[in-house]
Amino acid sequence: MIKSIFVPASGSPTDTSVFATALAAARPLGAHLDFYHVRLSTTAAAAWAPHLDFCVGAALPKELEFLETRGRQLAANAAEHFELFCREHRIDRRESPEACDTVSARWLEDKDGTGDQLVSHARHSDLIVMGRPRHVDYMPMMLLEDLLVGCGRPIIIAPESPPKALTGTILVGWKETPESARALGAAYPLLEKAKQVVLLNIAEEGSANASDHKSLAHLAQQLRWHGIAAEPRLIPHRSKEELARQLRGVAAELNADLLVVGGFGHSRLRELIFGGMTQSLLESAGVPVFMMR
Predict the structure, then answer these.
(1) How many C-alpha atoms does 72 have within 13 Å on its Cβ side?
(2) Nearest residue to 119 (alpha-carbon basis) of 141, 153, 151
(3) What is the CA radius of gyration of the chain?
(4) Is residue 183 located within the same domain as residue 72?
(5) What CATH code is carried by the domain that includes residue 240?
(6) Angle between helices 143-150 and 115-123 in degrees, nearest 10
(7) pTM of the predicted protein model
(8) 162 lies in a domain?
(9) In 3-state terms, what secondary structure has residue 9?
């Protein structure tokens, strides 16, 4: 069950797509949205500010003053984005849980905080919706990866353009791995609301065999116990095309609203050094990506 969705607000233009993605997830589930902004302390922001290490003399106080001013502005922007969003979409404000099937929202803010507070809030929620890092808020560059590895919750990564819905066609990128199984299980509430679900397995080692087809058909049959009518689809890996690009291509062909995948199938270090499908999807995708490790 997904009833509490955590939505970090950066105070930057990326809030538009992140907020819209969160609402598209919340509407079919009647979920509550916790919008959250952490205003980093000047010290914490300085640790991630570009070029600060090169500031000497009079330049250093000026840079620190800029970080303080920038932090205040981002916090004000984030709160304003929240107010305008709730007003535009007529979202009820609730500070405490109530039995209700309509979308509600709450504003949370930490001042002089760190990224650790954001991770803690994420762990206490059912789902996190985030944008790709643009570093305008001086949060750690690896925050999204750290959340994926360390928070124990599924994450939806918002695309550049705001989506209107997530439950038309959902594409599940399936591999016989624990990560894929966890992501699929976490996505059940959205899959149950979808008009179409496609289970896609890209056979990485040569052509697909009878065992691959049988395994995917069995998974589709198991999903029927949840009322999910899924179409199994097994395709060969095109050797000259990376898996993530091929997966994005199928999502585009299907006009999918959501892509569900497991994260970090190999060791995290290997993924970060050699790239891999997870890292590629973290960096770019035309549709919202539902991911869990």
Answers:
(1) 5
(2) 151
(3) 20
(4) no
(5) 3.40.50.620
(6) 40
(7) 0.85
(8) no
(9) coil
The total number of residues written for the chain in this structure: 293
25 and 83 inside one domain: yes
Residue given tokens 């116990």 in the structure block: 225
> Tokens 């959902």 appear where?
170
Specify whether the backbone of 227 is left (phi greater than 0), alpha (psi in -120 to 50) or beta: left
Q: How many CA within 13 A on the CB side of residue 141?
A: 6
**What is the predicted pLDDT for the residue at 221?**
96
In a shared domain, residues 45 and 147: yes
What is the mean pLDDT for each group of 10 consecutive residues in the chain (293 residues)?
Answer: 94 93 96 90 55 51 67 90 96 84 91 76 93 61 76 92 94 91 95 96 72 90 95 80 82 94 60 55 80 87
Q: Given 116, 137, 157, which residue is the final one in a domain? A: 157
Query: Residues 276, 145: contact at Cβ < 8 Å?
Result: no
Q: Domain count of the chain?
A: 2
Question: Domain range holding 60?
Answer: 4-157
Q: What is the pLDDT of residue 200?
A: 93
User: Residues 71, 74, 80, 85: is their CA dihedral positive or negative?
Assistant: negative
Would you say 257 and 287 are in contact if contact means Cβ atoms under 8 Å apart?
yes
SS3 77: helix
Put the strands of the sheet holding 230-236 in their side by side order: 92-93, 104-113, 32-40, 4-8, 127-130, 155-157, 289-292, 258-262, 169-173, 196-203, 230-236
Token pair belonging to 210: 């009878």
CA distance 54 to 203: 49
Other Cβ atoms less than 10 A from the Cβ of 217: the count is 13
Contacts of 225 (CB under 8 A, 6+ apart): none
